[in-house]
């Protein structure tokens, strides 16, 4: 019997929560705040805090985590910095906590990390000020992040799921892999790609699902000038007819509904699979609860994943989506783009004989267009410079990433 692996994970998570008597949910009934930094706390205080909230106090977490990190790294106790090496802070207020935090972080020697942290702190503090974030809301947010970590495992990454449903995954991919006109756009990777897919020859079948609707895929890979690209490694994966990936089945003994292929001298590859179906993303954890509170559904439209790799060419992660799917315009993880929506055709008699299919079987045809690493890098650099200019920032590119130009 096939039992979805996510069900087993959920059971283990529920048992662990019950054992620890922890209420790490998105909406705790009695949100609490950590002890003020100016208040002296004892071991008894930490124990009382744990009993009330199910969590260690911020004080105990900081000390225990710092100790474990330094001891495990063999660094010993960190040396105190002198007043001459530490920036002097102003008297802290709601208005100046941001520049004070950025001042302390400005000692970082890595210009890119320093810039990222300056922007992160600034936007994070502005968010708190603009929303007038309450203490209870702040603690709900912290407990939500704790819950994301607790439910994550080797086969489930709740933080990646969170990034997906917030649109961050697609945004980062679009920034780092911009596409010129007439090239294939990217989509989200998703959490179900594996590295054990079998390498198949053209014409082979990647499915072992007898319930799936047979589909033949005929694809080509070209450059932006229309020339075929040979020797491209292609990873392909999809769900079975029940809407589950093979890794979601507890009795998985070998890969199914996935394969690796290589384009031939004409840039072509073809294979047999099944018609993709729509399916829900994991919704039994904190991210699923968040979607419920937001009134959002957790469904992805029917699609098939593709990943293309060849030295000198920009790494492309994308997917093809079936036109007419009820979730086509409301994908829970924002993966759908108009250029990636396809219409399925049917196999005619001649094709059926040529490819070992039946007349009337479904047919997927698509021409993928790749761009070179140089093309992508040039476009990414120009986009970065324009974005910084539009923000009124004086920047320069270091390793093709923007940092403040202070020279």
UniProtKB/TrEMBL annotation:
Q: Does the keyword Disulfide bond apply?
A: no
Under the heading CDD domains, the entry gives: 1_2-HQD
Any GO BP: catechol-containing compound metabolic process
Q: Name one GO molecular function term.
A: catechol 1,2-dioxygenase activity
Q: Where is this region: Disordered?
A: 18-87
Cofactor or coenzyme needed? Fe(3+)
Report biased composition (Low complexity) as residue ranges.
24-41, 57-67
Task: Look up the domain of life of the source.
Answer: Eukaryota
Q: Which UniProt keywords apply?
A: Dioxygenase, Iron, Metal-binding, Oxidoreductase
| SUPFAM superfamilies reported for this sequence | Aromatic compound dioxygenase
Q: Where is the Catechol dioxygenase N-terminal domain?
A: 110-182
Query: Which residue range or ranges hold the Intradiol ring-cleavage dioxygenases domain?
Result: 190-370
Mention any Pfam family matching this sequence: Dioxygenase_C
Family to which the UniProt record says this protein belongs: Belongs to the intradiol ring-cleavage dioxygenase family.
Q: What is this protein called?
A: Hydroxyquinol 1,2-dioxygenase
Quote the gene name from the UniProt entry: chqB
């Amino acid at each position: 019997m096939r039992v979805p692996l996510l069900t087993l994970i959920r059971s283990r998570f529920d048992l662990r929560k019950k054992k620890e008597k922890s209420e790490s949910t998105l909406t705790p009934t009695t949100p609490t705040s950590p002890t003020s930094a100016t208040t002296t706390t004892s071991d008894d205080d930490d124990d009382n805090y744990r009993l009330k909230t199910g969590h260690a106090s911020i004080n105990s977490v900081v000390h225990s985590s710092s100790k474990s990190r330094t001891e495990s790294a063999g660094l010993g106790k960190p040396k105190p910095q002198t007043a001459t090496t530490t920036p002097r802070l102003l008297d802290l207020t709601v208005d100046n906590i941001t520049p004070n935090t950025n001042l302390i972080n400005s000692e970082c020697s890595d210009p890119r990390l320093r810039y990222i942290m300056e922007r992160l702190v600034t936007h994070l503090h502005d968010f708190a000020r603009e929303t007038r974030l309450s203490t209870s809301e702040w603690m709900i947010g912290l407990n939500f992040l704790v819950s994301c970590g607790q439910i994550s495992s080797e086969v489930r990454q709740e933080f990646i799921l969170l990034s997906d449903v917030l649109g961050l995954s697609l945004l980062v991919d679009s920034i780092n892999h911009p596409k010129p006109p007439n090239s294939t756009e990217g989509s989200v990777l998703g959490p179900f790609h594996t590295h054990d897919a079998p390498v198949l020859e053209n014409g082979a079948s990647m499915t072992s699902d007898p319930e799936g609707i047979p589909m033949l895929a005929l694809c080509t890979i070209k450059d932006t000038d229309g020339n075929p690209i040979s020797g491209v490694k292609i990873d392909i994966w999809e769900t079975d007819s029940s809407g589950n990936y093979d890794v979601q089945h507890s009795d998985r003994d070998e890969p199914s509904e996935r394969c690796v292929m290589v384009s031939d001298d004409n840039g072509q590859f073809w294979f047999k699979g099944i018609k993709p179906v729509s399916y829900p993303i994991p919704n039994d954890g904190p991210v699923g609860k968040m979607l419920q509170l937001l009134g959002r559904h957790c469904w992805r439209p029917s699609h098939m994943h593709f990943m293309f790799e060849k030295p000198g060419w920009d790494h492309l992660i994308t997917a093809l989506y079936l036109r007419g799917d009820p979730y086509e315009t409301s994908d829970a993880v924002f993966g759908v783009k108009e250029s990636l929506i396809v219409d399925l055709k049917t196999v005619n008699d001649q094709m059926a004989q040529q490819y070992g299919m039946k007349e009337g079987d479904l047919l997927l045809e698509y021409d993928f267009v790749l761009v070179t690493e140089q093309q992508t890098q040039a476009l990414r650099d120009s986009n970065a410079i324009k974005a910084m200019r539009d923000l009124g920032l004086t920047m320069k590119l270091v390793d093709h990433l923007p940092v403040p130009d202070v020279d």
